[in-house]
Amino acid sequence: MAKIYVASSWRNEFYPEVIKRLEEKGHDVYDFRNPPHGGEGFHWTDIDPNALKWSFEEYTEGLKHPLAEQQFNDDIFAMEWADTCVLVLPCGRSAHTEAGWMAGAGKRVIVYIPEMQEPELMYKLFTTVVGDIDQLLLAL
Fold this sequence. Notes:
By secondary structure, this protein is of the alpha/beta class. The chain has a single domain (about 5-140), classed as Rossmann fold. It contains 6 helices and 5 strands. The protein has helices spanning about 15-25, 45, 55-60, 65-80, 95-105, 135-140, and strands spanning about 5, 30, 85-90, 110, 130. It has a 5-stranded parallel β-sheet, sandwiched between helices. α1 (about 15-25) links the parallel β1 (about 5) and β2 (about 30). It starts with a strand and ends with a helix.
């Protein structure tokens, strides 16, 4: 069984089903929405309700906040622990950064595209691209 880091977005409606199906198949899965230190994961608004309106200087200070440091450390530890990354689209910058880091570390990266989006050439850097959950499970 694989040790899987699932990279995606808080807004991704497919994410919970992916976690559920991977765990049902016996894989060890890191779920950023339910981090090991407890709670419901990190949100910038946990630091400041006005985080989305920060200046650049406020943002760089926010990166140093203990809550940001805790989540970052949890995510990095999980990325080092995992042997596989599943990038679940649609997602944003952080998830793509995580997948790129994992590919650069020599780990398997599977891109799961449950609803077709604009093609992306650079996904050729990753192990494979799949279009449904059954293909994802087979790729593992």
